[in-house]
Amino acid sequence: MENTTINESYNQTAKRVSAVSIVVNLFLSLFKLLAGVLANSGALISDAVHSASDVFSTVVVLIGVHLSSKEPDEEHPYGHERMECVAAILLAMVLFITGFLIGKQAVENITSGSYEQMPVPGVMALAAALVSILVKELMYRYTARYARKIDSGALMADAWHHRSDSLSSVGALVGVAAARAGYPVMDSVASLIIFAFIAKAAYDIFMDAVDRMVDHSCRDDTENRIREFVLKNENILGVDLLRTRVFGNRIYVDLEIQVDGSYTLSQAHDIAEEIHDGIETEFSQVKHIMIHVNPGEAHS
Predict the structure, then answer these.
(1) 249, 261 in Cβ contact below 8 A?
(2) Longest dimension (CA), the chain
């Protein structure tokens, strides 16, 4: 019942944040595309394409979150949390391909040598870039806040998609300003810089998702907090083993505790059960715990 409640809250939060993201990105991409066309700015048009790709990426996040929150079944007894990792990997690929296409066009423009024939962006491009920087940075902070709250890798990937869009708009702003100052090639140089930001964000998202897919241990501070929580119990003489592995956005724990060897089996079981329930209550990310009890000698 508790896991079902957590999944429902997780799902509802992710859906709400994603819905806001889709609406904002649709309006922003159309705004930047229109401004880029009217103001003759290739950098701003590239930036608009980047924003449009965010709509697709957010849809992927929604699908991944929905699948990962499904309850365990006969074929998937450990649940479906890794589907969110698959969604994050797809996001990283889409992000990189989008950036690559932007970078490819920029390189072609720069190497053409026909700088004097390049159009000079209008002042509307500057205004659109400024609006984009502000809106996308606010969307990054909004999405990242809830991604950390529910510990969602896919939602955090979407947050970084917003941040990369904000950074790309900074590049577009600089490029447009330089082009208007008499250096039209800088509009294409800005597009190339945008690609570098996008590629870095895609790499970070991809590596984080891979870590979650291959049973990477959770952060050291989380393991230390679990260990400290266990040792607070007066019946625990020591922690002989503590292993963790991240499974999607949840944590699995293997724990060996030491109790007084004179305790009966029933007493040792009750202590292990108390530790088990306490960890699941204290650490909402923990989905499953396996506890082994070792006999020890109590110090008088």
Answers:
(1) no
(2) 89
CA distance 195 to 200: 9
Taking residues 276-283, what's their average pLDDT? 89
What pLDDT is stored for residue 276 in this prediction?
93
Token pair, residue 9, equals: 């809250």
**pLDDT, tens digit, 9 for 90 and up, residues 114-148:** 666 566 677 888 888 889 899 989 999 999 998 88
N-term to C-term CA, the chain: 42
Tokens representing residue 55 in the block: 């709509």
Alpha-carbon gap, residue 234 to 283, rounded angstroms: 20
* Cross-strand partners of 257: 239, 293
Task: State the DSSP code for 121.
Answer: P
Tokens 């950390």, residue located? 148
The domains of the chain, with CATH numbers, are 2-213 (1.20.1510.10), 220-296 (3.30.70.1350)
Q: CB–CB of 18/34 below 8 Å?
A: no
Confidence of residue 79 (pLDDT cuts 50, 70, 90): low
